[in-house]
Hints:
Blueprint: H1 3-27, H2 44-60, H3 65-82, H4 84-108, H5 129-150, H6 155-161
Helix pairs in contact: 1-2, 1-5, 2-3, 2-5, 3-4
Transmembrane segments: 132-150
Organism: Neobacillus rhizosphaerae
InterPro entries: DUF212
Amino acid sequence: MNKGVYLALFSIGLAQGVKIPLHYFKKKEWRPDLFFGTGGMPSSHSAGVSTLTTYIALKRGLTTFDFALSLIYGLIVMYDAQGVRRQTGELTLKVNSMNDLIEKIQKEDSIKFKQNAPNKLKEMLGHQPDEVIGGALLGLLIGIIGHLCTKKDRKLLCFKLKF
């Protein structure tokens, strides 16, 4: 694999890891399971594509085909993360609350109806726009640092950063 892929994967992992302490400071609740979940601040999707796009821009230039491809792909991913996936998450909240309503109606009705309760759908699918921006900024930073660390005259900087 090339360095751009390594940096993008590192950025995704870092964004997922950052969700845990951010959630703790916000909600005073320790949730290590957030590392494997979707949604939340920062968006790991945005971080990954921003890292890759930034690295390509600095390494190969803004006029290259691979930069254009990465940029358009990244914009689509970020739009989807805060648009379609967020709307799906909000719809899921409504579907999950309908199950509670159905149970309430069944208890008040004299006719007994036996139905297996469906599993609740995952509610945290997409991102708020600020979560996408947070991931994009994290990705931009990782892309810049990664590029600086791959330059031959910058090896001393990277050694000091332990990157």
